Amino acid sequence: LVVEIRDSATSRIVPARAYLLNAQGALQIPNGTIVYQKHQEHHFVTSGQFDMELPSGPYSLRIERGPEYRPWRASIDLREGETRKVEVRLERWISMNRSGWYSADLHNHRKLEEMPMLLLAEDLNLAPTLTDWIWEDKPVSTPPHTAEAIRQVDATHVFSVLDKEVERLEWGPGAVDLLGLKKIIPFEGDRLAPPNDRFCRLTHEQNGYVDAEKIVWRDACALAALGHLDFAGIVHNHFNPHGVELETDRWGMIPRERPEYKTAAGMPLWSMDVYYRFLNCGFRLPVSAGSASGVKASPIGYNRVYAKLDAPFSYERWFQALKAGRSFGTNGPMLFLRVNEEEVGSTIKIDPGKRIRLKLHAEATSAGALDRLEVVAKGRVVKAVSLADSEGRLVADLEMTPSESGWLAARCFERSNSTIRFAHTSPIYIQFGDRPSIVAEDARYFIAWID
Question: Strand, helix or coil at 279?
Answer without folding.
Answer: helix
